[in-house]
């Protein structure tokens, strides 16, 4: 009974479970049918939306509204989400910026952000915030928007760079399409933040660009530890791709932390980065947020940038933005620049401002002039006088067109001369006590600056009228001869004086007279009283008086005795004695009163000598080179210049050396006579004086050549100028011929200067050697090797002038002629040996040898010549270089530099000469047998394969120099490795020009600027949402249509194919 009951119970349970299973099966079937039906309906809706979204002419707002209406009617959104993502994936696997794909991405971003609430007014927003605070409820994000974000965050780690790129792009567009007051969940915010921080370090530049743009709204400028800001700063400093740096510049928020990095990008190697940096500063940074030094550097670099586009941005964007914030007050802008210490930069700034203004507006903005068209003396300030000078010079530069306008802003010559004379006479002369007072010193410095600007204005005066011209000359001569004139004005006064005198002989005469008046001024000297002579005259006067008394007594006696004839004689005698007495009194008066005489006394104090030497130096500079040395200049040399070289005062000696060096340029005989003296000064005196002497020596060698030394050596004994250590090293190389010995000694001296710890002396020497080599006065592979090593040496990293000078020199020198390329080729192996053998303690051990080799290879390319040889069968420099490297590898196949040489061989442009080809094949076959390194063997075998068909190799080299790089290099590499390798070879064949940024990079030149921008990184990158760079030449409309049809991508084929398969 118990068993039966149990069986009945089990049967009931099985029946119940069966009915429940059947019911579930029916519900599942019904749900499945409903799902299939809904999916089919939605598939058509979503599929149609994606198909229409591909076409740019469709209204995406209508598509979004239609699809959104369909979405809102659904109860179960999950299937819609899955189907929507399914079709989105078709677009996400395409890396190339196809128009159809871009349209789809734009549509997805609009549709996803359309679920957000529209932006509310401030009052509504404040009311909502109050309600939220009361209810303590937080509104959640829309499910579809959250789903899309989650899907993209899961996709950002995909192995395909296309998927990573599209995921970051969509996140960027989604965040950018949201309203300004939009809010997202904190967890979602953190997930997006973390994902984008990872993607900004992606291998592909396009991914990094989109990730950086996506984090625009995630940065917190007020937080010094903001991860986004720190990532941006790291990218600006270290990212090798210019477009990535531009993307960060376009979206980075300005703060005291980020401003220095943005300022640094104004010195970026890429033109479009510098341009954008100036645009960002103009739009986001107030002028008061910058220091005076930063403002000056920005203007100084921007107005003189090598790129015209950058200069236009500074003139059209930065300066107007600053003036707008200063209410258009140009004088106030000058106050912000500290014109006393950066007058030239201020002048360039004013001229840039004036260029964009019409003439009528220039007259309206003029400074406050009185009825004489002069600024009142009481109103003269550094800023107002500089503005006046810049305005007059700008108008004067227009020529005849500006003459009428100039008359309205500047007085006539005679009136201005009197005005200048009065101001210069009022400049105070400080005593020693006053010089210690900073206030007095600042006042005098300000007055001297104003005086300099007033003197510069002389160049704008109309001196065609004789009366005004003579008055200006008289004022200038008087101020030069006046001892109270500040020494800082002497050079400028002399320059303006000589500019008004056209004849060289009259110039010499005028300046010589002024120097004579300054050096030997006329002085009044009083003679002392002669006591002996005065005593004698007094005795003589006493005798005359006694004789007069005696004669008068005798006269009375004769009258009493009535001896009238005797009385008449005595009367005549008395008259004569009285005349004698009068004469003696006059002589005594002259003796007792000392006489003042005008005499000339020579002054030899340092200040006087410096003034005279400054005038003499300015005279010699203004003289034409063909003007020979006359008696007047010879007298100045013997009486002023040569004695001053031995003066104890350094400034006097320096100016004397400048005068001597300039004077020797006018006379070869004088140069031969004083060459030894200049060489001695270049070694023994102070640094500033040594540099002046070195400049003089370089100028003489440039003008007369080294044959000047041979002529000088015939009459003088060549001295040994090098140090004892160098004498021992170079003793075997010294020639018996004294001319060669002297030239060799000079080169050794210059070589020693290259090793000097004094940066100014080292830079001046390097610049001088570069000039001598470029003009052909020197042709030395060793010296060129020294200059290359100096350029790469980390010790010279902060010497901007040296790096810039040598960087320009290498380009010009190697491209000038084939002979110069041969010198570079000869310096190749010595340079590599020096770097390979550099000890670990040497700064040269830090130099990248591969980069140096790239430099030398690019400099010796036949295609780099300004005038390449038309003879294609001619043996080129790279042929000799290849033979040399093969010879070096055969000497020691196990040496570490063998791998470097083997790699370099494949980058050479070899000629099609059969003899050269056979020789290289023979050498390479020998190397393949002895070299054991696998990497070297692969490179050598590749080179052998390239030599099989010289004609095909030549065609490849020509194509590599003309064909732009493939922008989809990475995708093509995965499809066809051989094509990728071929493109790599082509990239090496582009004509090279080298730019210095720390370790130098090879970039394109001579018709290859577009190529160089893309060759900066190994992957293609774009600048979406980044301001455009320098505009390029637009192709024709027909060419664009043909290119568009050829590259057009249609996602419908993929979508339909997938639908058919399913």
From TrEMBL:
Annotated UVR domain residues: 547-579
Predominant localisation class: nucleus
Stretches with biased composition (Basic residues): 25-34
Keyword Cell division appears in the UniProt entry: yes
UniProt GO cellular component terms: condensed chromosome; condensin complex; cytoplasm
Location in the cell: Chromosome
Region (Disordered) residue spans: 1-34, 117-139, 720-739, 1006-1037
Domain Nuclear condensin complex subunit 3 C-terminal span(s) in chain numbering: 611-910
Alphabetized UniProt keyword annotations: Cell cycle, Cell division, Chromosome, DNA condensation, Mitosis
Keyword Nucleotide-binding found: no
Domain of life: Eukaryota
Ranges of Basic and acidic residues composition bias in the record: 10-24
Biased composition range(s): Acidic residues: 122-139
Coiled coil (residue ranges): none
GO biological process, one term: cell division
PANTHER family: CONDENSIN COMPLEX SUBUNIT 3, CONDENSIN COMPLEX SUBUNIT 3-RELATED
Family: Belongs to the CND3 (condensin subunit 3) family.
Record protein name field: Condensin complex subunit 3
Organism: Pleuronectes platessa
